[in-house]
Amino acid sequence: MARQRAWQGPAIFSYGFRPFFFFGALDAALLIALWVPWYLGFIQVPSMFTPVSWHVHELLYGYVPAIIAGFLLTAVPNWTGRLPVVGWPLAGLFGLWLGARVVVAFSASLPPAFVYLAALALPLALIGFLAREILAGRNWRNLKVVVVLSLFTATQFLFYYENIRYGTSVYAERAAIALVIMLIQIIGGRVVPSFTRNWLKKEGSPVLPPSFGRFDRFVMVMSAAGLCAWVALPAFAIEEPVLGLLLIAIGFLNIARQWRWRPLKTLTEPLVFILHLAFLPVSLGFVFAGYAAFSGSVGAESAAIHCWTVGAIGGMTLAIMTRASRGHTGHSLTAPPATAAIYLAITVALVLRLAAAFNPAWTFSLMPLAALAWVLAFAGFCVIYGPMLFTARS
Asked: 321 to each of 76, 115, 369, how far by Cα in Å?
């Protein structure tokens, strides 16, 4: 807080969530707005990656690190009691991320090694910052976040290796998705019931979500095992009925876990209900992945991936971004109609993308509509929350 009060520069660099949430959301909107017409053959992007590889890279290693950075740079000072990163150091971290987006977009004419180093600069810097703060603050319980973030960055190295060797990525993409889903289960598994409990207490509800306990730990361990098996699944190259049934069972375990958080009691407050709505695709992704392993269905495999990416990653990050932006800029913790509209847009994007996965003949109709809904959700965030993020808290 002392550093924030001392900073006299642009308000956008007065707190970690401000630049990374706004420009991360803008990046999410732009990358899909460019990717769909590129994938359909209407435009060209001067990147050294293929359209699909660029799409995967910029979602997993562009958008996701931005939101993780915004979240951690805001949360870590609360975890450790140490001063936040603000001002020019924050601008420097943001510059690493923004520079990487430009380099990757125009990488066709650049040395590949330079492109890889530019893209890895922010995650490596973030790991160093996070490890230093947690160790200095003796906040040992959150070291697991450093471990997950380090493993996630390792998948980025693997992504480049697979693209150099094979021209595409399989294991890196799966491992990165699995690690982000695990991070959602770790952090979301704490904040969703916590925020729900706080809201239900304020509403005077006698029924509250239970505290984190043995059942939650069991589901987390099973989920981690299931995700590891899913990452390794392409090595089998055949249907795996036992693994499929296990993944389906893990999906229902996650549904049972979430049901204990009283999701239906939050229907009247979109700012809380969106957390539950965004967590549900974690469970559904396991169910679809299990069905794909059991049956060999390509549509179910695509549905699992998009449940986890569009629904869980897109939905949960949007939920956290709107809540944190409102709370840290002094606005009420309630969702006005415009915010509820962007929640609706990301939900429509997921439904349309799942419909396209199971109906390949409709792909060229449904994919652009799903993309439009995604763009409206994240561009809508920029329009609604941009003024809050660029203005100092009064």
From this structure: 16, 28, 24
pLDDT in tens, 223-253: 999 999 999 888 765 568 888 999 999 999 9
Rounded CA-CA distance 355/362 in Å is 8
3-state SS assignment for residue 240: coil
Q: Are 247 and 285 in contact (CB under 8 A)?
A: no
Q: Which residue in this structure is represented by tokens 């993944």?
A: 247
Other residues' Cβ atoms within 10 Å of the Cβ of residue 50: 14
Residue type, 336: P
- The letter for the amino acid at 90 is L
pLDDT > 80? residue 153: yes
- Per-residue pLDDT tens digits for 258-292: 999 999 999 999 999 999 999 999 999 999 999 99
Q: What is the DSSP string of 135-164?
A: HHTT-GGGHHHHHHHHHHHHHHHHHHHHHH
138 Cβ neighbours under 8 A, 6+ residues apart: none
Torsion 253-178-23-325 (CA) sign: positive
Residues 6+ apart with CB under 8 A from 102: none
Residues 6+ apart with CB under 8 A from 252: 283, 287
Q: Count, in order, helices (H) and strands (E) of the chain.
A: 16, 0
User: What residue type is assigned to position 390 of the chain?
Assistant: F
How many Cβ atoms sit within 10 Å of the Cβ of residue 82?
Answer: 15
Straight-line distance from the first to the last Cα atom of the chain, in angstroms, rounded to the nearest whole number: 14
Local confidence band at 137 (pLDDT 50, 70, 90 cut-offs): confident
- DSSP conformation class of 10: -
pLDDT category, 129, cuts 50, 70, 90?
confident
For residues 379 and 386, what is the distance between their CA atoms, to the nearest angstrom?
A: 10
Q: Which residue has the tokens 């969106």?
A: 274
pLDDT above 60 (res 4): no
Mapped onto helix, strand or coil, the DSSP state of residue 32 is helix
For residue 191, the tally of other CB atoms under 10 A from its CB is: 16
